[in-house]
């Protein structure tokens, strides 16, 4: 007779996500995971597979949560440009916050740590980034159609510029004590929207 799990796999995945997010992949050992999750190695392997598979599942969880929240922000009815501005300012504020300095963005952290040599992680990073860029592009197309964005602006190029800015804000925010650096960059980018 098979034994039933004595832990909540969903809660364990969330806990693993938080540990990986705070420490990174390489700095998190399987022993760290056992201690942090409060479950045995065998249970981790049986439920999630290897440490790498658990990390990828944590990435998927993070992207699902963050990407759906961003979708909700950028696809609300009404004017689109205020939503884009709010997203950029929120990213800048988060990046400059104490928690942002501590953790950064899980996907951005993965891009820097694993993507250059880990195809599975790189694929997930690219999917998340494409999603963010697409959401920004859609909002800017809507803004242009509603007369909020001048006709001479290229929504695709602006979306890409904002996306790259957001990733840079996350890196600089994590490494710098100067929150004005992040805020000023975000405001200058927003000025390009008209």
Automatic annotation (TrEMBL):
Keywords: DNA-binding, Transcription, Transcription regulation. The keyword DNA-binding applies. It comes from the Bacteria. The keyword Transcription regulation applies. Residues 6-66 form the HTH tetR-type domain. Pfam families: TetR_C_13, TetR_N. Signal peptide: none annotated. PROSITE patterns: HTH_TETR_2. InterPro entries: Homeodomain-like_sf, HTH_TetR, Tet_transcr_reg_TetR-rel_C_sf, TetR_C. One of its GO terms (molecular function) is DNA binding. Residues 29-48 bind DNA. This is TetR/AcrR family transcriptional regulator. It comes from Streptomyces hoynatensis.
């Amino acid at each position: 007779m098979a034994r039933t799990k004595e832990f909540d796999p969903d809660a364990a995945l969330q806990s693993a996500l938080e540990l990986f997010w705070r420490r990174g992949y390489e700095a998190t050992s399987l022993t760290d995971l056992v201690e942090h999750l409060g479950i045995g190695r065998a249970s981790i392997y049986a439920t999630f597979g290897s440490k790498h598979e658990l990390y990828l599942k944590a990435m998927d969880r993070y992207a699902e949560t963050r990407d759906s929240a961003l979708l909700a922000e950028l696809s609300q009815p009404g004017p689109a440009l205020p939503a884009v501005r709010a997203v950029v300012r929120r990213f800048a504020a988060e990046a400059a916050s104490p928690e942002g300095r501590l953790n950064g963005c899980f996907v951005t952290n993965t891009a820097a740590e694993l993507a250059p040599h880990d195809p599975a992680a790189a694929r997930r990073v690219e999917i998340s980034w494409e999603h963010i860029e697409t959401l920004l592009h859609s909002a800017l197309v809507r803004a242009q159609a509603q007369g909020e964005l001048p006709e001479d602006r290229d929504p695709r190029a602006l979306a890409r510029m904002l996306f790259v800015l957001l990733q840079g804000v996350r890196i600089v925010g994590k490494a710098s004590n100067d929150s004005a650096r992040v805020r000023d960059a975000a405001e200058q980018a927003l000025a390009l929207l008209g």
